[in-house]
Amino acid sequence: MSNRLIGYARVSTADQTCDPQIDSLRAVPCDEVFADTGYSGSTVNRPELDRALATLLPGDVLVVARLDRLGRSLSHLVALIQELADRGVGVRAIAEGVDTSSGAGRLVMHVFGALAEFERTLIAERTRASLAAKRRRGETLGRRRRMTPSQVKAAAKMLDDGESASYVARLFRVDPSTVRRSVARQRQVAA
Predict the structure, then answer these.
(1) Do 99 and 51 fall within a single domain?
(2) Is the whole model's pTM more than 0.70, yes or no?
(3) Quick check: bond before 29 cis, omega within 30?
(4) Are residues 21 and 110 in the same domain?
(5) Which of 116, 145, 153, 159 is the S-S candidate for 74 at Cβ 3.0 to 4.6 Å?
(6) Alpha-carbon distance 31 to 191, whole Å?
(7) Helix crossing, 165-172 with 149-160: angle to 10°?
(8) At 32, is the secondary structure helix, strand, or coil?
(9) Helix ranges (DSSP H) in the chain
(10) Which helix (H) or strand (E) is 64 found in, with range?
(11) Residues with a known catalytic role
């Protein structure tokens, strides 16, 4: 079982520097430090984070200067830390004093997990409330249809007259599958 400390630093813009984070990681001291420059926390692919995660072995600890350098959101952070825990890897955040390889650190992460679940629940509730309000106001939900009802009627007539869906689609500047789906929906409603 490995017992390395692997550091990770990140700044959002190229004109910022990771030096303060790297200095604090080297003071730990980390065996190796990876740093992403110019990558927002919301960016899914962060090459140096991916490299750091790939090097981690059971017993290792991923060290960050602050937790916000690691996760895109609270729920993403909790999921990443859980994924690492499943691999036998701990996480240490210097500024927050969190170390998931200790009992107290695991407790803090459970609290974070509960907060992330609460955040997801609030988002879902707000979404449902917003959709209900739109329905009460009579607003249509979802994406706007690519073809108007009169275009669908014209497309159906053209298809009945033997024109191909590809030809009709070019006329209305949509995909042939849109023509077929729209016409089928109209016929289903009429039936």
Answers:
(1) yes
(2) no
(3) yes
(4) yes
(5) 116
(6) 70
(7) 150
(8) strand
(9) 19-27, 47-55, 74-86, 103-136, 149-160, 165-172, 176-190
(10) strand 61-64
(11) 12
